[in-house]
Every structure is written in C-alpha cells, then in structure tokens.
Amino acid sequence: MADLIAIPAGDLDAFIRDHLLPDTPFRRQVRAAVHTLSTFLQRKPFPGALYPVRVSKVLKGSSSGQDKALVGRADAHLLVVFLDEIKTFEAQLHCRGEFIKEIRRRLEAYQREKMFGVEFEIQEERSEDPHALCFTLRPPGQAGSREQLEFNVLLAFDILGHWNGRKPKPQIYIRLIQECQNLKAEGTFSSCFTELRGAFFTQLPAKLKSLLHLVKHWFLKCQEERGGPLPPQYALELLTVYAWERGRQRKDFVTAEGFRTVLELVLSYRWLLIYWKRYYNLQNSIIKEYLQKQLRKRRPVILDPADPTGNVAGEDLCAWARLAEEAHTWLSYPCCRNSDGSPVKAWGVQVRPLASPSPHSWGCRVRTRVPQKLPLARAHWLYIF
C-alpha cells in the first residue's frame, strides 16, 4: 500500500478509493461468513446448553463503541448479540460471561463441522468472566496471512426492542441513567444502542464516510508508531462528523480540507465539548439534568450520540497529548499542503479555550517533537446537535 505520508493533498480521494475501500474476494467471503454466523446464532435455542440461549437479533457493527474492556483492538469489527434471557442492564453486566462461554462452545462445535468458507480462530479467554468473544477470520489455508479480520462478539440487553427509527422514549434513557449510576457502570451498555449508532453513521454522505476511512487509517498509523496508548478511535470518528457538521455540511467537499480540520481539532482537544441530541429527549428533567452533569466534566467531552452515559473521549489526557503531537507533525506533510507548499485551508470550525494556553495545557508530559506554541483549531465551542 502507498504510504499516506507521501500522498499529495489532491490525491487523497484516489488513495482512499484504491487502498482503503477494497472489495476483495476475501472480504466478500467474510460478509458471507458473518451472515452464516448470524443465522446460526438466531436459528433456535442451543441444544444441551447449560443456560438457555435464545437470540432475538444479531447486529453487525464496526470498531465504534467497543466495550471498555477491549482496549487495544481498535480495528476489530463488532457483532452484537441480543439475548432474550438478558432483561436488565444488571443481568447483562453480571451474566454475560456465562452466556459468552456457552456461545463459544457452540461456535467451536459449528467450526468443527466446517460450515465456514474462511478459517475461524477463536481466541483464548483471558478471564473467568469474559466481556466478549474474540475471533479472527482469514482466507482458507493461509494461517500466516496478513489479510485477516478480527471480530468481537458482545452480548446486549435488547432495551430498544423493535426500534421504528424515531427518537426513543424518554423512559429508556431514564432507566439507563438510573441503572448506570446504581451499578457504577457509566458507558458500559453502549452495545445496547448499536442500532441508533448505526443509523447515526448510515445517514452520512458517501464523501464523509470516505473521510472517516482516511481518519481511521491515520489513527491506526499513529497507533503503530507511538509508544503509549491513544484516545479511543470512536472519539476520532465522532470528531470527524463534528468537523463536517460544523464546518461544511455539504455532500461534496475537498477531502484534504476535512482531514486538516480534524487534525486541527485534535490539537484543541483540551477544549472539546461535543454532544448530539438526536436521540436524547432534553424535555425530560432527569435526562437534561444528567446531561448537564456530563457536560461539566473535565474536557475533552465527546458524548456518544446513542448513549449519554459514555464520554468516548476517555479520561487519559496523555493519550490525547500523544495524538496531538502526531497531528501537529502531519500538518506539515504533503496531504495537508497545496502543490505550492502552502497549508490546505481548513473549514473554520472554532473552539473556545477555557483559559489562555500555557506550557502545561497539554495535560501531561510526553516525549515531544512539538514546539510550545501550537496552532489552535478554529472551531465553534457551541454544542453540536
């Protein structure tokens, strides 16, 4: 694959098309295997199971919104399995380990029957109470192949039921907020809202989805090169949507401008305060009060549009500082420069500093290549809806 570092700004669309959106025969095999797997999980109760396992639906997700315990698997795909037997958030939290073990047992038996067109390797469980079932799909007979996809299978409480595409009833979020506070498990149940998150991203224009692929590719490159952890990938995806909604909102745009805007927003991470109210009903006093509490937390704050209990920006300011270093360096690369060497124009999205920048405004000390004075992103501090 061509190296993004050397790609000129005007060639980013071709780079995305040729290298980040391939539809290889292997990926088509994977889609077929995922369909087979989903059908298997839903077809009937598992015979001989120690626990009843009846699946109401299986949803395909992406790396977005992974379980907190799955840090380090940023590029893994997601399958969310909704079980009839999980009827509360508390049951999901405390019983998922046993259900995952049962699903693993059945999948291993299914694998022995060679029902998949790709090789299927289930990873060893790391604890007695696993949060997810992790497995890898790769082309048949190519155990060492680099062309492979990782998957996480999460279990979820089907609180949305048959969602009709409208804003969920306030009672759903009231229950989520109250149980999260009682269980001290804020942000743990985002998988229950996979349908909402999927709808949030599905309605985005194709060009913006391509920019999301580019930002994800950049993030994974940074992840490979840095010595420490970086912010959650999902936060970068939402930041990209934020940049477009506040700066462009047109189906067609210059990809390099969008990419530069995202990098500049990363530089201003200490001032990010972002949320959407597409699914939250702020007319309800309980939801509104809780949301205001979330927005008073230390920044960056980027709330999951489907789950207000989850600040997907995380709490590690050092992780953001590392990514900001990378962003500052990348602003000088050809992908953010015009042919004459001048900077590509950003979209003019503004953020308001909490206070004047200081030498310690990055939040922690990191191995740095960045000068003390960094260019601040131009962005609205206004909340995004």
UniProtKB/TrEMBL annotation:
Family affiliation: Belongs to the 2-5A synthase family.
Signal peptide start and end residues: none
UniProt GO cellular component terms: cytosol; membrane; nucleoplasm
Biological process (GO), any one: innate immune response
Name of the protein this chain belongs to: 2'-5'-oligoadenylate synthase 1-like isoform X4
Keyword Heme listed: no
PANTHER family: 2'-5'-OLIGOADENYLATE SYNTHASE 1, 2-5 OLIGOADENYLATE SYNTHETASE
Provenance organism: Erinaceus europaeus (Western European hedgehog)
Ranges in coiled-coil conformation: none
UniProt GO molecular function: 2'-5'-oligoadenylate synthetase activity; double-stranded RNA binding
UniProt key word RNA-binding: yes
Domain 2'-5'-oligoadenylate synthetase: from-to ranges: 167-351
Source superkingdom: Eukaryota
Keywords: Antiviral defense, Immunity, Innate immunity, RNA-binding
